[in-house]
Write a structure and sequence with these properties.
It contains four helices and five strands; from the N terminus they run αααβββββα. The protein is an alpha+beta fold and about 120 residues long. A hairpin with a 5-residue loop joins strand 2 and strand 3.
Length: about 120
Amino acid sequence: MPKTLETFTDYDRLKGRLELFRTLEEGWDSGSAPAPFESTIASADVALSLLGGEILQNCSLFPANDGGIYLTGHFKNESKFAVYFIDDSMTYIVKNTEDKTGGEDVTVTTESIKGLKSDICRICL
C-alpha cells in the first residue's frame, strides 16, 4: 500500500533522511568528510525502528564529518537528547533542567536502544 500524508510517519521522515545519507559522497561538506559509514547507518536505523513515534516526532538526523550520524531531539519541557552513532556504537546524553544521564561507546543492540528509550521517556516525556 503506498504512503499517503495520513500514513506518513515521523519514522518514515527520518528513515528517508537516513536513506539520503547513503547517497552522500566523500567531501559532501565541501571539505574532505567521508560519507556516513554503512555500519553507522545500520546502527541509526536500529535506533529509529525501536524508539517510537512519540520520541521521533521531535527528532532530527544530521551526518557528522567523520562518518558518524547525530540524532537529536528537543521537547517542550526544555529537555533534550543527542545521540552520536559511529560504526556499531553510540554515545548519548539525555537531559532536562533537573536531571541528566548518558552513555559512552555503548554497543548498539536492541537492549541498549531500549535503555536509551527508557532514559528519554523518563527525562524528556
